[in-house]
Write a structure and sequence with these properties.
- The chain is mostly helical.
- It is built from 15 helices and no strands.
- Helix 4 runs antiparallel to helix 5.
- The protein starts with a helix and ends in a 5-residue tail after the last helix.
Length: 369
């Protein structure tokens, strides 16, 4: 199994011509009866060896973290003596980087590279957080949300720096999204610190802030997407992960602010949710990204379930909800390209130029950048 990026690298190395790569893309698209631009391809797994190495790496990182925690508590470097020690995540981060030098830089294995990156950035965050708690003392965090917010922001800064270093060395596409998540953590931490003890009464303000951050990440994703409308390079993979991060940051605050997370929904609220899902679906079609639809799926399922209850279909409400949504999504998947054409073609030319193109024959005739 070969990814678009593998073909790009083969062309760059002179192993095959750009025309041959374009012909291969055309052939695969024809076999699938769908344009390659609508496949939303990204490299996730190239074979069972990816799963094998990922499991082995996970076991090794667990062992290293366990040993680091034992060593930390033995040396008195745990929070409150026997609490979490910064040595555990530090060992995980160092091991993740070392493994990436082989499995990412040399072997170019997709799934292990993703897991090792997430382990490295997450462990960097935890290392900074535990070290700071150890230095200032756990008591300083009691009833002190400002300190907690500042601590989270500093840990986020360390994680963002780690993501940047990882990107400079390995350039795994998900790294940019991990860095964006760390930056979002910095912003939320600083906001919580600014709100202080009033943060519990500022729930809607925090949700609105997260929504704003999500929209910002969405525009960053669109910037990466618009730089590769043919979806033939690593930039498209970077955009995919950014969209995957932005989607829940946009969808969750919107539906929470609508009151959908209070345990029940009226018919009116359910109709609003369904209409919003339709709008989200149109946006997903326009940008050719399914992450928005998946992120909002749980909310629309809940809303439809409550609506069927209101109409008296209590025994079959779950089955009817699954039937409606499952059928709709399968039909959309089957006719995704046709639906995209109906949505994109009426848009202004300037806007269409920033979206993934519709005509795959134009794409395939051009060598990847």
């Amino acid at each position: 199994m070969y990814s678009q990026n593998d073909l790009d690298e083969a062309v760059s190395a002179g192993a095959i011509s750009a025309q041959s790569a374009a012909s291969l893309r055309n052939f695969i698209a024809t076999q699938r009866s769908a344009p390659t631009v609508d496949e939303e391809q990204f490299r996730f797994i190239t074979g069972f060896n990816d799963i094998f190495v990922s499991i082995a790496a996970g076991i090794l990182l667990l062992a290293v973290g366990w040993i680091g925690q034992w060593l930390g508590t033995s040396l008195g470097l745990g929070v409150d003596g026997d609490g979490p020690s910064f040595l555990a995540p530090a060992a995980v981060a160092a091991t993740s980087w070392g493994l990436a030098l082989f499995f990412t830089a040399r072997r170019r294995m997709a799934l292990p590279s993703i897991l090792l990156l997430l382990a490295f950035v997450g462990a960097s965050f935890a290392t900074a957080a535990f070290a700071l708690v150890l230095v200032i003392g756990p008591a300083a965090l009691d009833n002190n949300p400002q300190m907690g917010g500042v601590l989270g922001a500093v840990a986020g800064l360390v994680a963002a720096a780690g993501a940047w270093l990882h990107w400079k060395r390995f350039q795994v596409p998900i790294t940019v999204a991990a860095g964006a998540a760390a930056v979002a953590a910095i912003a939320v931490g600083l906001m919580l610190a600014a709100l202080g003890e009033s943060f519990e009464d500022s729930r809607n303000l925090i949700l609105g802030f997260v929504l704003t951050l999500g929209i910002g990440i969405f525009f960053v994703a669109m910037r990466w997407d618009s730089s590769d409308p043919a979806r033939l390079t690593r930039r498209s993979d970077v955009a995919f992960w950014l969209h995957l991060l932005a989607a829940p940051m946009i969808v969750h605050p919107v539906f929470t602010l609508l009151g959908l997370n209070d345990g029940n929904a009226t018919i009116g609220e359910g109709l609003v949710v369904v209409l919003l899902y339709v709008v989200i679906g149109l946006a997903a079609l326009a940008i050719d990204r399914r992450a928005l639809l998946v992120s909002a799926l749980a909310y629309v399922l809940f809303a439809l379930n409550e609506m069927f209850k209101q109409f008296g279909a209590i025994e079959l409400n779950i089955a009817l909800t699954a039937l409606v949504i499952g059928s709709a999504l399968l039909l959309l998947s089957a006719f995704w390209h046709q639906a995209r054409e109906a949505v994109v073609r009426p848009l202004p030319e300037g806007l269409r130029a920033k979206l993934p193109v519709l005509d795959r024959t134009v794409l395939a005739s051009q060598p990847a950048a």
